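Attaching the record inline, Q. Sequence:
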Amino acid sequence: MSPAETQQPVPDDPTANLPLLELRDGLSEVVDENAALTDAIEAFRSGTGPVAVDAERASGYRYSHRAYLVQLRREGAGSALVDPIPFGDLSALGDAIVDAEWIIHAANQDLPCLAEIGMVPRAVFDTELAGRLLGYPKVGLASLVSEVLGFRMRKEHSAADWSTRPLPAPWLVYAQLDVEMLIELRDAIEAELRREGKWDWAQQEFAAILAAPPREPKPDPWRRTSGMHRVRNRRSLAVVRALWEARDQIASSADISPGRILPDAAIVEAAAAMPVDRDTLQRLTAFKGRGAHRHMRTWWEAIDHARKLPESQLPKQGPRYDGPPPARAWADRDPDAAARLSAARAAVSEIAEAHRLPTENLLAPDTIRRLAWAPPADASVEVVTTFLRDHAAREWQIGLTVEVLTDALGKTAPAEPLT
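Structure, as predicted:
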């Protein structure tokens, strides 16, 4: 099916006059039986060129981050919609395309859930990351397809519960459209990267995605509870921790998103109110909902346990962090470090602007902070180069920034005027 023009454009919509992206080959049947999976594996093994790959999760609905649908497209194979749930393992499908380049939009989001079902690429092209390197202000898939290829995409089902079975046909159309133009988008973006002299940068970035170790769980994940700024003392922090851990256990066992068991607002409200008994807890506004009421005994036991903890077992006020202190405190704690950081940030920002890059894609902000806070004793170009490599900077990033960073390390705070 050829892309069809929009029938009634919306005047205020800048994409209104773009042709609406449609499925060229019609909607594929969902692969959820062994015979259909065998056919799909052979079709994609026989296809040619790169493979467009996408995955849908049920974020906001389920505790796990597993893939509930995998979409693929390849020249000679067409498109496929594979339900991984009946199979559990799709390593045979991954093996069939392992020698091809996988085109994935925002690869860091999809690679972990694909790896869980046995699909691990050897080469990847991340269209979102490539868009960042090219300086596009919006790098969502729909925005890039619109800007680069001139088609308007449907995005109305992006927050759907993909664990739903059977999946509604409109959702499947949306999902298949996500791989419909990825191959064309990849080719157009590669041409642009080459024109701007950024192709080697992109290849280094893609290799770094595949070489990155699995993400380690962050310490004290309960500290990321929304609204923590309202929690003023260590005893209240203990209540947040106890409720968060109780909720997490329930959510994990039921495979339900934690926020659907008990919202963060309820945890923070209980920590701030410090209820003295279960009846008081039940009268809190955030605990009057059906979901919170269902586990009321668990919530009260968690709070009561936190109330009775000895001082030595209360969490510390601030989170554990192995890096430098917040930059806002540098001027008082170490004025010279503040001067180094200011100079380094300004220099890196100038280079990023000259190359039409987001600053964070030129060099990780955390790397700049660590270098400025505790610079090497011998801050030569060679030593700073080693430091940047040790902190996972790519060679193209080092080449653009090492000299200005080395210069910035020699900055000191202005002397206090004599009075």
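The beta strands are 30-31, 48-56, 69-75, 78-82, 101-104, 123-126. The chain has 20 helices and six strands.

More tomorrow.
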